[in-house]
Amino acid sequence: MSQQVVGRKPGQRHTRSWMVTQISKVSLLYLIITVGAIASMMPFFWTVVSSGKTISELYRYPPTFWPESTQFVKNYSEVWTTVPFGRWLLNTTWVTTWALVGGTLSSAIVAYGFSRFRFPGRDAFFFVTLGTLMLPVEVTLIPTYLLFGKFNWIDTYYPLIVPAWFGGGAFNIFLMRQFMLSIPYDLDEAARIDGASSWRILWQIILPLSKPALATLATLGFIGNWNNFLGPLIFLNTESKYTVAVGLRYLQSTFAGGSAVVSRPQDHLLMAAALMVALPCLILFFVGQRYFVEGIATTGLKG
Questions:
Q1: Residue 235 class from Cβ within 10 Å (0-12 exposed, 13-18 middle, 19+ buried)?
Q2: pLDDT band per the 50, 70, 90 thresholds, residue 286
């Protein structure tokens, strides 16, 4: 009896040691994730807290964890009254909506051609399209500006919207093509036997099955267009036509709607404005998170 008990002890010790090791690894992993999440959320938390402080409290040292005298309503109201922030939000919504619709639809159509049709030079043309990703924006900025100047599009929203309707960008095309390649060709063949055209297959079969990828494009496209700073800065000159990204820079350097130069820091107002600008992106990401993750995970299963 004693020999059997003694014989089981090394195995029991090994099992117990293995369990302790696994629990330690999992605990360490969760600790690292928790610390990383807290560190990532600190700038956002500080933005929220700072948007409710007075300018003197914001620069006080040591800093306060929460506003002693909350100024949330006053600060947010001052942002709306100091500059035409509401107008900038409408401008940004207008540009983002049309650029998002155009970019998503056109990239899906182009990706459908690359993934479903066979024609001479298809792969070479696709690689050339991907090659444009390596071109910095600064390389094409001056020729693009001169081209839009010939069209009399400077100080209009056309340079921010129209290009999105012509392919939607190489990355969007690549993402949609990779996802469409994972859809079985048998569905296309069955639809063609029933008399469906290529357009009908796209609208009634391919696009409904590509909802995760479309949601991913919509999320990335919305964030990219909403936060676009360089485009509006280059092509828009009138204050009333600014988007919120350029408006934040304007708010930083001007006061009272641009009629006077700032004589004191306005960082508490910048925090409030930045939070209002970031809020739509945060809401969209959390609402479409499931489709976003699914689209990223599924894309590229076939090459």
A1: buried
A2: confident
